[in-house]
Amino acid sequence: MAITLTDAATLHPLPLPEAGAAPTPLIRQYADVRNASILETSGRDDDVLPVESLLPVLYSTRASRRRQWYIEQDGSMIGCIAADILQDADGESAIGVIALLQKHGGQGLGTAALAHLESELREAGVRKLLCWVEHHGDDTDVICSPTGFGSVPRDNVAHFLERRGFALGQVERASALTWDADTVHGLERARAVAQEHAQDYRVVQWLSPTPAEYVDGYAWMKSRMSTDAPDADLGMPEEIWDAARVAELDARQTAKGFTIQVTAAQHLATGELCAFNELAMSISDASSVTHQYDTLVLAGHRGHRLGALVKTAGLLGWHQTFPASPRVVTYNAEENRPMLDINEALGFAPFAYEGAWKKDLT
Question: For residue 1, is pLDDT > 80?
């Protein structure tokens, strides 16, 4: 059923085809609007997805209940909305995105769409709405992170969010590593140094799907990623991982057309997996950007350079397998100085900053 946003614009639920079916014309329009909005707001195509890759990630899973809507004006799709209701911790947290083509801004569409999204989420039992936004502007007027690390410019998006009850919770740094001969040599030297400090550990590595022998250890490390990574006051729920959730992650990435390489450190004495790094990219385009996802060292194994070990081993192995990928992109909380120290030493350079915003819906 269409929802009236303004005299000229309406909001519609996005119907998804049966799982495994081809994208519908409406889904193709949704992908086009989403991708155009990403290019407008960031100037980069790192997160642009062809419709065949986007469709599989629109479906709900055990871990997240996903909903989408689109905005229509004068017979054309001009915006899209997505909500991801996280099922851990009784589904009380959700991540929301509103993407509106810039030429249609200033008409009150964002305000009306947000009001509808919040109403839908409250009805679904959500108590906290989170969003991550890349900010652009000069540093003459900034909003400082409450963590004490980092700031974002008070641009139009920040003004919009503040006026509607959101508070900045954290600042994330986007960094990139560009490949050249010096990069490889630097990674090789850094790996050798890290291995000297980690002689009680060995590196194991795999491409998805996850081998059966590593599923349980990988699942445990993924669960600790949700509790041990810097969270500021965002209150992200603790994630419960098991073999079924790992299999679902692997299947979802395959359906998306992505492959994931996991590089882990294994304790020789116990066989425990105790640190890991993830790298991913589209397997249909060997020259596309690489995404560095999670990296974590379990608390009981810190102090042995395991973060540097899994990152360097992962990057070197990845570059051998996918040498045409020109760069690696990653995101880190500005207060996560140990991980930023490693990234900077390996050659990652910052190129953008995101604000993590939170609104209490109670």
Answer: no
